[in-house]
Design goal:
The strands form two sheets. Strands 2, 4, 5, 6, 9, 10 and 11 form a seven-stranded mixed sheet that branches. This protein has 120 residues and is mainly beta. Helix content is 0%, strand content 51%.
């Protein structure tokens, strides 16, 4: 089964930066889309950023201009660079990968999450 392992979370001050990593157990170009979601306590899990197999990216309005999603195919890793962090960014961040997006057999895989706390 596909495994996704996030790392890089922790405590950071407002205005600071952190880079999250998502290491996949298979070649990431095999996925139609990979992305980052976040979930604060008592909230739904919301899309933060996504990147498809062609390199097209999509961002939530709340993070545009501050976060950047990227990939390193050689390392089978997707990154989320987070700059100018705000307390509102505090959440558990989850990596996801989707295959078969345009079929009836789409599968979504999830990592276990990494916690980012933005606080002074």
């Amino acid at each position: 089964q596909v495994q996704l392992v996030e790392s890089g979370g922790g405590l950071v001050q407002p205005g600071g930066s952190v880079r999250l990593s998502c290491a996949a157990s298979e070649r990431i170009f095999s996925f139609d889309v990979m992305g980052w979601y976040r979930q604060a306590p008592d909230n739904h899990r919301d899309l933060v950023a996504a990147i498809n197999s062609g390199g097209t990216t999509n961002y939530a309005d709340s993070v545009k201009g501050r976060f950047t999603i990227s990939r390193d195919n050689a390392k089978n890793t997707v990154y989320l660079q987070m700059n100018s962090l705000k307390p509102e960014d505090t959440a558990a961040y989850y990596c996801s990968a989707v295959e078969g997006l345009y079929t009836d057999y789409a599968m979504t895989y999830w990592g276990n999450g990494t916690l980012v706390t933005v606080s002074s």
